[in-house]
Amino acid sequence: MTRATYAELLNLLAGIALVAAVLTLWRRKLVAIVRLLAVQGAAVAATGLVIGIDRASVSAIVLATLAFALKAGVIPLVLLRLVRRGPDARETQPLVNVSASLVAAALLIALAFASTSAVVSLSSGPESRVIPLGFAIVLVGFFSLATRGKAPSQLVGFLLFENGVALVAVLAAAGVSVVVELGVALDVLLAVLVLQVLTARMQDKFGSLDLDQLQELHD
Q1: pTM of the predicted structure, to 2 decimals
Q2: What CA–CA distance (Å, rounded) separates 174 from 51?
Q3: What residue spans define the domains of the chain?
Q4: How far is Cα 6 from Cα 118, in angstroms, rounded to an integer?
Q5: pLDDT tens digits, one per residue of 167-197
Q6: Which of helix, strand or coil describes residue 122?
Q7: How far lies 210's CA from each of 78, 127, 136, 148, 205, in Å?
Q8: How far is CA 64 from CA 115, 200, 207, in A?
Q9: Residue 72, SS3?
Q10: Angle 3-26/151-172 helices, nearest 10 degrees?
Q11: pLDDT at position 128, please?
Q12: How far apart are the C-alpha atoms of 52 and 186, rounded to whole Å?
């Protein structure tokens, strides 16, 4: 793999991951949002795979492949099962509307590039030049987590945030942190399974996955 091809692949995969994060703010169907999460997870895991191939590291390749199976397969399937068994197929009550969300995403992306310019200047490697995209995903994921009203949407926001952190870690360590990333992915899978049980109980109790219903527990 030539250096130019390697750099182009990193930029392409990170770009796909960022676009998927922004599109989750635009879509309202929960199934579509989960599918976008799967695309992003595949791109993030593929980034680690490309770095492993470039470094000729068999262990990194194997671990990145396992991370791919978790992020693009197992976790989205668990979320799809949760969404499809619920009565609410759309995110109907976000705290911020679509237009404002997209504007906020653009501002957050600009902030990510501005705040990581010093870090990028420290290294001339292709990995460091992609770090701003990963940080942008972190900010967009946190925004999604903070502005969505339904449990599955907030869970997707948390996973977007985690994917951004994972992408930054893999790029900053040039693939060395793939082992750590796999461990984090397993922890996230466990969290998703626990949250699936909690949301199922919430649905049985309130007949909805709208988090506003939890206000009834205040008394």
Answers
A1: 0.81
A2: 7
A3: 3-217
A4: 23
A5: 888 888 764 455 555 555 555 665 665 555 5
A6: coil
A7: 19, 40, 27, 10, 12
A8: 28, 31, 39
A9: helix
A10: 160
A11: 85
A12: 20
The answer to whether the CB of 141 falls within 8 A of the CB of 158 is yes
**Structure tokens belonging to residue 81:** 């099962």
- Residue 130's nearest CA partner among 17, 2, 5, 11 is 11
172-191 CB burial, b ≥16 within 10 A, e <16: eebbebbeebbebbeebeee
Residue with token string 């590039």: 113
Per the listing, tokens 């649905």 go with 203
Please identify which residue in the block is written with the tokens 């870090």: 119
- Distance in angstroms (rounded) separating the CA atoms of residues 162 and 142: 9
pLDDT value of residue 70: 83
- 143 pLDDT band (50/70/90 cuts)? very high
Q: What is the pLDDT of the chain when averaged over all its residues? A: 79
Do you know the residue count of the chain?
219
